[in-house]
Prior knowledge:
The strands form four sheets. This protein has a seven-stranded mixed beta sheet. The model has no long low-confidence stretch (mean pLDDT about 95). It is α/β, with parallel strands linked by helices. Helix 7 links the parallel strand 16 (about 295-300) and strand 17 (about 320-325). The chain contains ten helices and 21 strands. S-adenosylmethionine (SAM) binds near residues 299, 300 and 347. S-adenosylmethionine (SAM) binds next to loops. It comes from Pseudorhizobium tarimense. Keywords: 4Fe-4S, Iron, Iron-sulfur, Metal-binding, Methyltransferase, S-adenosyl-L-methionine, Transferase. InterPro entries: MeTrfase_TrmA_AS (IPR030390), NA-bd_OB-fold (IPR012340), SAM-dependent_MTases_sf (IPR029063), U5_MeTrfase_fam (IPR010280).
Amino acid sequence: xxxxxxxxxxxxxxxxxxxxxxxxxxxxxxxxxxxxxxxxxxxxxxxxxxxxxxxxxxxxxxxxxxxxxxxxxxxxxxxxxxxxxxxxxxxxxxxxxxxxxxxxxxxxxxxxxxxxxxxxxxxxxxxxxxxxxxxxxxxxxxxxxxxxxxxxxxxxxxxxxxxxxxxxxxxxxxxxxxxxxxxxxxxxxxxxxxxxxxxxxxxxxxxxxxxxxxxxxxxxxxxxxxxxxxxxxxxxxxxxxxxxxxxxxxxxxxxxxxxxxxxxxxxxxxxxxxxxxxxxxxxxxxxxxxxxxxxxxxxxxxxxxxxxxxxxxxxxxxxxxxxxxxxxxxxxxxxxxxxxxxxxxxxxxxxxxxxxxxxxxxxxxxxxxxxxxxxxxxxxxxxxxxxxxxxxxxxxxxxxxxxxxxxxxxxxxx
Length: 414
Ligand SMILES: C[S@@+](CC[C@H](N)C(=O)[O-])C[C@H]1O[C@@H](n2cnc3c(N)ncnc32)[C@H](O)[C@@H]1O
């Protein structure tokens, strides 16, 4: 390890300040463009010792767990960046990914994210000699930082921390680390533990007693199995009540979900036959079914069942059909796509490569692409453009405040 003084020239995609040293780029966490910093250099990573020229874009972090000089949690990367350059950074993640695929000039301003909106958080937990450790991992390590506050989490999750801790403690057996996904639902907190060793009868009883004594916990599951469910967890997808399965995917903030839904609904308009691909528990399908018949396709059985049940229990929706299908291996073919006026797709980070190849050859009039990865979105848009589609807009949506992740909705037509 050596000491050097460097000047940061830009912010990298992972939120590090990047300086150019004689051996190539040096990545410095918590440093901003324009700043001159003395660093302890380890390989091509620097740790700030002192800053002599402070950027005007620097902001005071809101959370005590962000402080790099203390035991900082790795949940946030960019709390030290003021809001205007922060939003420019997020927008540029999309702009740069599209540019690299020859797609220019279509990116709208970012739909912002406020503090206190995150309704889903994934905690790490472990029993120690001093008691239960519950928190978030320090960046790029397995070390758990115990959490006392979190400005991005919803008030429901924050006020539920004592109950979450008590349930985690009742689940914890041995010193192994496990993950606890906490989702705030309309009926209470939904807690899904994963990576736990199978619980014996005594441990199960302890979890049940803890949940019944705690306030505000709707359900606890371990490795996908429901242990106790005082209330059926319910979420609202555009006026349709859905009970998602334990640990199922859900958009991390309701505000981002609503923004995405509004964009794609305005584009799809009154299309009579709509296909929703990678449909999850029906976040978009159930909203789309207010005006058109919807076929929802998804790889996982349980969310699809929740979607189907919600559609059957709700008055005033057009017909909703569901299909379990692996869209990476068996995308809908050009022939199958013929019956739809509009297609919505919202794949995992890997994107929808196989499916867009079929879509690019199809006659579907309108497409809405929702994505959590600008790189695979750009690749997929390129395929659709080469197949004759025009991109009308791309809107970045900040769903993961102070992280380096960004969502985007692209609207296309032919
Ligand atoms: C980003 S989520 C979107 C879910 C839903 N649209 C929503 O907004 O809640 C991606 C979804 O794709 C599903 N998925 C992942 N791989 C898949 C595959 N190979 N075939 C079909 N669905 C898949 C996941 O189960 C998940 O529900």
